[in-house]
Amino acid sequence: MLKELLTRFESRKVKDYYARKHDEYLKYMGDIFQAYRMPQDDDFLDYYIKAMKLKDGMRLLDAGCGVCGPASYFASKLDVAIEAITISPEQQATAKEKLANMKLKGQVYPSVHDFHFIDKKFSEEEFDVIYFLESFVHSAYPDQVMAGAQKCLRRNGMIYMKDFFH
Are 133 and 164 in contact, with CB atoms under 8 Å apart? Predict the structure, then answer.
């Protein structure tokens, strides 16, 4: 119980940070909140598709999705279903607005949820790939995040992490 309270307290700090910085991130980074990316975003995102071995028919979890920049790109290229979670209601609203105007092969479902509690929201063995793209750094309890992710990962699934700052 105490660890859950501490986790929620730490997560609240991240949520408040993104509430304050939401417009600034959009202004300076656009839809992709990633450091040290390639000059062309498509090249960068295509690299992720190859590195994660994404294929049509997969079910993915974007843990810390921001405004769904990468998720929407993946779903534009592949017939995948992506659950995209963010702790920020502002990011979710922006993602939903953006996604409403896109033609996608796959589906992206943005929701507000704390990735420390992945296993409370999703079923066991639900995802082929769970990815953290510069979001894991915000975890005060990485062991809790990984334990929940492992429960929700299908057999032979992949947890993929790119986090320059961690």
Answer: no
Q: Where are the beta strands (DSSP E) in the chain?
A: 59-63, 81-86, 107-112, 127-133, 153-162
Alpha-carbon gap, residue 109 to 99, rounded angstroms: 9
Least Cα distance to 72 among 80, 116, 15 occurs for 80
E-state strands within 14-94: 59-63, 81-86
Identify the residue whose tokens are 């209601």. 89
| pTM listed for this prediction | 0.83
CB atoms within 10 A of CB 102: 12
List C-alpha distances in Å: 124 to 13, 69, 109, 135, 154. 28, 26, 18, 22, 8
Strand order in the sheet with 107-112: 107-112, 81-86, 59-63, 127-133, 153-162
* pLDDT per residue as tens digits for the range 108-157: 999 999 999 999 999 999 999 999 998 888 788 889 999 999 999 999 99
